[in-house]
Write a structure and sequence with these properties.
Chain lengths: 394, 179
């Protein structure tokens, strides 16, 4: 990988229609895992090819085998059941607040699926993403990034009191097993040679910027919300317990304000100021943050935290069809270079291009063009900042 | 053995549906399908009511802010539900007749009262009813966009409830005082 401004992605890529159909048929038990893998293998190869053609330095498998970035674990962890919000509505006392949220998000209840703990959670021997990595390693020599749901996201979505209380009387007791599962998975991925594990915690923005309704969800993270400070403390503690003692692999954490709709007005908005005191204490090497969307707010909130952590800087919006001008990406990156050394910044999109299998926000063509724009910008930045590298005589 | 008669799509038998639809060409069948359709609404207590239709009973109430217990949806909410359900029936009917498998279907219906003061007796004028109703259908089916759009258009145009609401249907209300 280049030492300056390497280009990566946040993980997901849009699924071709035949893959979505195969996914649905496998979930319905109409086709075998092997039949599904045949379709998914080709989709992964296509997603990989487009990333490599664009010049991305660190690749993912596009999350092609996953329903979405966190619900896929339902097949990887014993004791979980995938439930749609439609099904969960039967157990929710305050349906009106759920209806409010569904309308605000402009999503149908059937499209949001959550892995809910209905028994004791145990990681299956095949792991969460080990098969994804094994396949990808056969087809690329580039460093591999694996996105995983973060411990806070997974705990919030898994523990649904009405269905989980027999196995776990409290959210905290459920979190203990979630932490153990993720910890073991990250160690296994490290031992396979994965370069980066990215823990996705998008619900943290819901905690800070979301409305005050008692029962909320974003990306189907369900359950009662406490005071935002308590929630952020809880998220920090879970991350410390999950990765605090892990070495030998790059750990990153991704936060965004929602990626389920192309309507910017239905997504959350606010700068990183309220989040950064907690994000900077997370025991990870890198924060992967959206900054292309104006909803992410001002750059200056990073001033007092510059260089504290590596930054995966979001420089293209995956939800717009218009491809960003590389010059704009360069200019945006330079705004951050007021506070960060060049060696601390990786360039990436704001979020995935296909967070939800059935609701991709970008076609492969648009996604590929956006990645190429990032790569072009990165090449320009490497030229501009070559003198900052050690050993430079400039 | 699969025969045309026992093929099932969307939980329905297309052959049976076609036979029923074909039967509507018969005068007697058409009259039976056309009505009268009836509901008998019986006051219980406070704002509570029971509505009896054929073999079904639905309980209605109002939000607890109106000094009641909110034991059932309000009448105007049932109207929204009826509108959504009716369009849904039309969507499923037309999809099934075309052999389109529906994977998921959800309808969000929303309305705002234009002048609820009229209901409260605080205003003599205006429309206490919904000033307009928004219906959004989320559909996922094994068909291309044009086919699903056609199914949707037929469902709305053919919906008895949607067309009743849309066409300013006259309501003949009379009072009989029982001694």
């Amino acid at each position: 990988m280049p030492t300056l401004f390497p280009v990566s992605t946040v993980g997901s890529w849009s699924r071709p229609p035949e893959l979505v159909r195969a996914l649905r048929r496998r979930q319905a038990g109409e086709i075998s895992q092997q039949e599904f893998d045949t379709v998914a293998d080709q989709a992964v190869l296509d997603a990989l090819r487009l990333q490599e053609e664009a010049g991305v330095d660190e690749v993912t498998d596009g999350e092609q085998r996953r329903d979405n970035f966190y619900s896929f674990v339902v097949e990887k962890i014993e004791g979980m059941r995938l439930m749609t919000v439609s099904e969960l509505l039967d157990y929710v006392p305050d349906r009106a607040s759920f209806e409010e949220t569904l309308r605000a998000l402009d999503v149908p209840a059937f499209a949001i699926k959550s892995p809910v703990a209905i028994g004791k959670l145990r990681r299956k021997p095949t792991g969460l993403a080990l098969n994804e990595v094994a396949f990808l390693q056969k087809h690329t020599s580039k460093p591999i990034k694996v996105p995983l749901p973060g411990p806070y996201l997974l705990t919030r979505s898994a523990w649904f009191e009405q269905l989980s209380k027999d196995a776990y009387p409290t959210q905290e007791s459920c979190a203990e097993d979630v932490v153990r599962i993720l910890h073991d998975e990250i160690l296994a991925l490290r031992d396979m040679g994965v370069a980066t594990v990215q823990l996705d915690e998008p619900t943290l923005t819901q905690v800070v910027y979301g409305d005050e309704s008692e029962e909320t969800f974003m990306c189907a993270a369900l359950g009662s919300r406490r005071d935002p400070s308590d929630e952020m403390d809880f998220a920090l503690r879970l991350m410390e317990e999950t990765v605090g003692d892990i070495e030998g692999i790059r750990l990153s954490m991704h936060v965004c304000r929602g990626n389920w709709s192309k309507k910017e007005e239905v997504l959350l908005e606010g700068n990183y100021g309220p989040l950064l005191p907690w994000l900077m204490r997370m025991p990870v090497d890198q924060l992967v943050l959206e900054m292309a969307t104006p909803r992410a707010g001002e750059v200056d909130v990073f001033k007092e935290y510059g260089n504290d952590k590596d930054l995966g800087l979001g420089v293209v919006n995956p939800r717009t069809d218009e491809v960003e001008d590389p010059a704009t990406i360069v200019a945006r990156t330079k705004e951050f270079l007021r506070f960060y050394d060049a060696s601390k910044i990786t360039l990436n999109p704001d979020c995935g291009f296909g967070t939800f299998a059935e609701r991709s926000v970008a076609t492969p063509e648009v996604a590929g063009a956006k990645l190429k724009a990032i790569v072009t910008a990165a090449q320009q930045l490497r030229t501009d900042f070559a003198h900052t590298q050690k050993g430079s005589t400039q | 053995m699969t025969t045309e008669e026992n093929v099932v799509i969307n939980g329905l038998h297309p052959a049976k549906l076609e036979a029923v639809i074909e039967g509507l060409k018969e005068k007697d069948n058409l009259e039976a399908f056309s009505g009268p359709w009836r509901s008998r609404v019986v006051w219980q207590d406070g704002f509570k009511a029971k509505a009896h239709t054929r073999t079904h009973t639905v309980e209605l109430d109002e939000p607890d802010a109106l000094d009641t217990q909110d034991t059932g949806a309000s009448a105007h909410e049932h109207l929204l539900s009826a509108l959504g359900s009716c369009i849904m029936v039309g969507f499923v009917l037309n999809a099934t007749r075309r052999g389109v498998q529906i994977n998921n279907l959800e309808i969000a219906v929303e309305g705002h009262f234009q002048n609820i003061l009229k209901w409260a007796g605080l205003d003599d004028d205006g429309n206490p009813g919904y000033g307009g109703i928004d219906v959004k259908i989320y559909a996922q089916g094994d068909a291309d966009e044009a086919t699903l759009q056609e199914i949707f258009d037929l469902a709305v145009a053919g919906s008895p409830v949607a067309q009743t609401v849309t066409r300013a249907t006259p309501v003949h209300a009379e009072l009989e005082i029982v001694l």
